[in-house]
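lol so apparently i was supposed to do this last week
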Amino acid sequence: MVVAAAPGVHLPCDAAVGNRPRQDERLGNPPRRRGRRAGAVSVRVVLAVTAASADPADPLAGLVVGDRPDPEPEDGWVTVDVRAASLNHHDLWTLRGVGIKEERLPIVLGCDAAGVDAEGNEVIVHAVISSPGWAGDETLDPRRSLLSEVHDGTLAAKVAVPAGNVVPKPGALSFEEAACLPTAWLTAYRMLFTNSGAAPGGTVLVQGAGGGVATALIVLGRAAGMRVWVTSRSEEKRAQALGLGAHEAFESGARLPDRVDAVMETVGAATWSHSLRSLRPGGTLVVSGATSGADPSADLNRVFFLQLSVVGSTMGTREELGRLASFCEAAGVRPVIDTVLPLTDARTGFERMLGGDLFGKVVFTV
Ligand SMILES: NC(=O)c1ccc[n+]([C@@H]2O[C@H](COP(=O)([O-])OP(=O)(O)OC[C@H]3O[C@@H](n4cnc5c(N)ncnc54)[C@H](OP(=O)(O)O)[C@@H]3O)[C@@H](O)[C@H]2O)c1
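anyway here it is w/ NAP bound
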């Protein structure tokens, strides 16, 4: 979007966001100016959802929905017109000041998006940004970042990423569905198919059935021929998990009918002990999150006596994202979406996630 304004005057330029303070006042960035005619300047701006400040106690205080300068791609980067973007806990952590330095703010939030590149190709954006010169599994690059940590993220009408950070969007998936894949679904894919060692016919336990990663684990595990058991504190979420394809659903902490081959853990402290107790000898606990706390008892006696493996898992590679998209198309599975909202109403989506009562992903359309 281009706005012509007299020098020094910054006009509101998107009716959807109404009267706002000056962009440079709100976000601390000078607007980019392109061209000058008859005393006017052109300012290219896009709608974006930004973390302007961080507050551990009140994360939504720093959330700004408004204009940002168009992203300027670096050499070797491309710009994607975002059609849909999805929300992750990562975005709330950023607003709390976790995992980001204050000098990085303001920054556009968001890791996940699907859209259209400059050649008109429908693409999914891969959120893991390798450091220059890195080759191999980008999740192992110690200097990697996720979109919205160093570079502006995906909750915007446009996002700039390295040219290698897009994969083709299968035509069978809508933009909203494809926008769910890059973080929660990719994490679930790597946990199950790269790190758990579980094979079709094996039994996996998914803790905390309602989360974005957990719902992905249920759908992917079922589609791959695994027996999928889930736990949840909520009867409603247990019923929804069964509807998604889980074979059995148990109350959190319940004694299981049998030991499982692998446990998928994202809840953390609240379920850790149950996860270790649920594994068969030689089983694998894959952990990618710790929503309820990161310091449970390690229960080392159980770990070594039963020869359990505890495997950390984070995000996935571009290649895994491509395979995940193909898997969804080939197996006919689709991401679970809780809510779809216009990007202008992003605050409502953040409030829903903060309320903690989600079943699946919150998606914003542009
Ligand atoms: N490493 C990575 O690459 C990566 C990627 C994505 C996400 N993550 C992390 O993974 C975690 C999961 O994220 P998410 O968005 O999928 O889900 P989430 O909303 O954080 O919730 C996961 C589940 O945790 C359970 N839970 C929360 N607090 C609990 C408590 N006090 N006691 C018992 N259960 C509790 C809830 O299950 P019930 O209500 O069903 O019991 C909830 O559905 C987050 O911490 C996120 O930061 C990591």
